[in-house]
Amino acid sequence: MLNADYRPLSYFPLSLWPWQEAVKAAFLDRVQIVAEYDVEVHSPSMAMRLPSVVVLRDYVKPARFPAFTRFNLFLRDEFSCQYCGSRGEMTFDHVLPRSRGGRTTWENVVAACARCNLRKASLTLRQAGMKLARPAYRPDAEELQNKGRKFPPNLLHESWMDFLYWDAELEA
Ligand SMILES: [Zn+2]
Q: Which residue range or ranges hold the HNH nuclease domain (predicted)?
């Protein structure tokens, strides 16, 4: 599902609609169909090919700043531990521990692997002798969109490809 500028409304997770919703939106003229699957659906009075790419008629302005959620936080940190750089099972860590008044904000929470999280425990960075890859910060929506492009989903229909611009290095 594309915004009126023909870019996906969201890259990660990729903005996808159940086909029923796409068909309904097409009938309500909220979207224009730009590509179709070979599959047809039938009702008693008509048949139509299922839309595979639809574009919104009205441009949706993205929020300038993304919501502070677990998912967005991991995306900001590209699912890598901000202490050791490892990837995999992520937890999140308060840089200044909550027990010392650290708050749950973009500027004080980072993605961390379980091992680093355990090691840091309720110590400050200095006490734990640990360093952040970079200070925690609040990203803007544009940045998260760009980072999301690095994580293409496993299943992509070929008719979608003209509208997706995945980072080339990750296609290898
Ligand atoms: Zn780590």
A: 68-118
